[in-house]
Amino acid sequence: MIVFLLCRTARALLSVPAVLLRRDTAKDAELLVLRHENAILLRHVRGRVGYEPADRFWLAALTSLIPRGRWAAVFPAAPGTLLAWTSAPAP
Questions:
Q1: In angstroms, rounded to a whole number, what is the distance separating the alpha carbons of residues 47 and 61?
Q2: How far is CA 91 from the centre of its chain?
Q3: N or C: which end of the chain has fewer CB within 10 A?
Q4: What is the pLDDT along the chain (91 residues), one digit of tens a residue?
Q5: Taking every pair of C-alpha atoms in the chain, what is the biggest distance, in angstroms?
Q6: How far, in Å, CA of 81 to CA of 40, rounded?
Q7: Which DSSP letter does residue 44 get?
Q8: CB atoms within 10 A of CB 71
Q9: Percentages helix, strand, coil for the chain, rounded to the nearest 5?
Q10: Torsion-angle region of residue 47: left (phi > 0), alpha (psi -120 to 50) or beta?
Q11: Are 49 and 41 in contact (CB under 8 A)?
Q12: Nearest to residue 17, comparing CAs of 33, 8, 28, 6?
């Protein structure tokens, strides 16, 4: 529940500058997503890639900065999974 509240708070805080600087913010957020994805993959060079709660929080928070139409091209997880992470409380 705490992670869920933190996620909601982070999304709210990140949405204010996103409205003001949508183009630059979306580009920077895409770069942050790719860097974080690389960090996840480096952690899991061998075996199956798994997302930790911090990874889910980070990627879900960045969804508010990138237009929804670009999610499939940018994020390593499916758009439906991202929506589930942003709307459902963490297990």
A1: 26
A2: 17
A3: C
A4: 677 777 777 777 776 665 555 667 777 888 888 888 877 877 777 666 677 788 788 888 888 888 888 888 777 777 787 777 776 655 5
A5: 41
A6: 17
A7: T
A8: 19
A9: 75, 0, 25
A10: left
A11: yes
A12: 28
For 60-82, the DSSP string reads HHHGGGS-GGGHHHH-SS-HHHH
Handedness of CA 66, 86, 8, 38 (dihedral sign): negative
Q: Indicate the residue type of 57.
A: F
pTM (2 d.p.): 0.47
Q: Find, among 65, 57, 90, 24, the residue nearest to 77 by Cα.
A: 57
Residue written as tokens 């630059």?
Answer: 24
* Residue with token string 């920077």: 28
